[in-house]
Amino acid sequence: MLNKFALLIIAAILVIVSLNINSGKDYSSGMIMSDGKGYYAWLPAIFIYHDLHFHFFDQIEKEKYFSQNHYYDYRMTIDDKVINKYYAGTALAMLPFFGIGHLMSAITGEPLDGYSSPYTSVINLAAICYLTFGLLFLSKLLKTYQIRQNYRTLILFAIVFGTNVFYYTVVEFAMSHVYSFAFATTFLYFSRQYFLRHTASDLLIAGFMLGMITLIRPVNVIILLVVPFLAGSWNIFQNGVKEVRHHWAGFCFSVLLFVTVLSVQAIIYRIQTGHPWIYSYGQEKFYFNHPHILAILFSYKKGLFLYTPLLFISLAGLSFLWKQNRFSALWLFGFLFLLTYVLSSWWMWYYGGSFSSRVFIEYFGLFAVMLGVTLERLTKKTPRKIYITLIVLLTIFCQIQTYQYRYYFIHWSEMSKEKYWEVFMRVDLLIDKGQ
User: Which value, in Å, is the radius of gyration of the alpha carbons in the chain?
Assistant: First the structure.
């Protein structure tokens, strides 16, 4: 009951903050930003303009809703066919809210063009709802690790307000990461539940969730490799695999659900280009022989642990897992290392304009588990109080830096050591800005 109440409080705070940030602004002008423009564009393209080659882009982006600061062309040309660079998974997740926005626009007399204020305001709401959905299953996941309720509540607040997921929920709410977080965390929960109770329904839901997170960002399929950790031991993992023979129909339907979800993109590509699959990112690719592991974690430019230090102290959970279950500790460490290696091998390892390393948001459920394990294993009162105090302080720290990022004291891509320390914890800058 406490955690459900906490979820309501978190959702209410996010709604209030979103209204405060965006009040007095025209939602239709620049509120769907950067990559989010491409993720969202599938919806008006299919349901309003019936135009999968995005000819409406010039009218919307260059004329009707032009914003010099937020202009972004998400289109690519493949075989002389204009396509959307981004995958359709985020748009599929947004679809119910898009429908609400269309209805609201019709009722209020706003333009039915997919970009007037009602559309973009409900996409803001969509991000809040999906985050809350993800947090619900994060709490359930933590419960399977016997994390006490008061610790689960603390972790939920810390993950929301002590990381960059807060920024991508209330500011750049059309980006894919909040949606990936929701589906990935739900996948983690039902995958773990399968090994605890061996039911076909868990397989079915996990298959659908895996399809969604892969459709949102194909690299997310790497999350499959963390499943043995969720099982808890190699023997439990093997037994779970063997149990599949008793749920063969459920497993087949799970695979079918996964393939069906992915087929959405294949169908779109077939209509657009005549090919069942294309690589829409052109010359952008992974360079696995040139990863930037230390930079993506610690650099002043975009270091995950520098700008989101809450995640760094969560790593203490690995040491406690090691004492309790070496298999789990080694597998989780190996997965996180592989994940970091892959993500840091992208041609633009800092992922353009972003706050902290946004590509880790999908996997915050794993960091939350480590936070929970640490809180449970710190049996002595003083170390536990120190750790809880650290969580609270680092949550406040993240909120200050988020505010600095919003007002460009922390630059979106050009931070350096000198710039970082020049504005470090400069709350006076925030006060001056507020005045």
Answer: 22
Query: Is residue 199 within 8 Å of residue 237, measured between CB atoms?
Result: no
Q: What is the pLDDT of residues 357-408, one digit of tens each?
A: 999 999 999 999 999 999 999 989 999 999 999 999 999 999 999 999 988 8
CB 300 within 8 A of CB 420: yes
pLDDT band at residue 23 under the 50/70/90 scheme: low
Nearby residues of 393 by Cβ (< 8 Å), 6 or more positions away: none
Q: With helix as H, strand as E and coil as C, how does the chain read?
A: CHHHHHHHHHHHHHHHHHHHHHCCCCCCCCCCCHHHHHHHHHHHHHHCCCCCCCCCHHHHHHHHCCCCCCCCCCEEEECCEEEECCCCHHHHHHHHHHHHHHHHHHHHCCCCCCCCHHHHHHHHHHHHHHHHHHHHHHHHHHHHCCCCHHHHHHHHHHHHHCCCCCHHHHCCCCCCHHHHHHHHHHHHHHHHHHHHHCCHHHHHHHHHHHHHHHHHCHHHHHHHHHHHHHHCCHHHHHHHHHHHHHHHHHHHHHHHHHHHHHHHHHHHHHHHHCCCCCCCCCCCCECCCCCCHHHHHHCCCCCHHHHCHHHHHHCHHHHHHHHHCHHHHHHHHHHHHHHHHHHCCECCCCCCCCCCCHHHHHHHHHHHHHHHHHHHHCCCHHHHHHHHHHHHHHHHHHHHHHHHHHCCCCCCCCCCHHHHHHHCCCHHHHHHHHC
Query: Can you tell me which residue has the tokens 């709490």?
Result: 139
Is the pTM higher than 0.85? The answer reads yes
The rounded distance, in Å, linking the Cα atoms of 252 and 92 is 23
Mean pLDDT value of segment 120-124? 93
Residue % of the chain over a pLDDT of 90: 77
Residues 46 and 159: beta-carbon distance below 8 Å = no
Burial class of residue 384 (count of CB atoms within 10 Å of its CB; 0-12, 13-18, 19+):
middle
Mean pLDDT value of segment 316-327: 94
Q: How far apart are CA 33 and CA 27, in angstroms?
A: 11
Strand partners, 82: 77
- pLDDT tens per residue across span 276-308: 889 989 889 999 999 999 999 999 999 999 999
What is the tens place of the pLDDT at every residue in 419-430? 999 989 887 766
pLDDT in tens, 194-219: 999 989 999 999 999 999 999 999 99
In sequence order, the 6+-apart residues with CB closer than 8 A to the CB of 225 are 335, 338
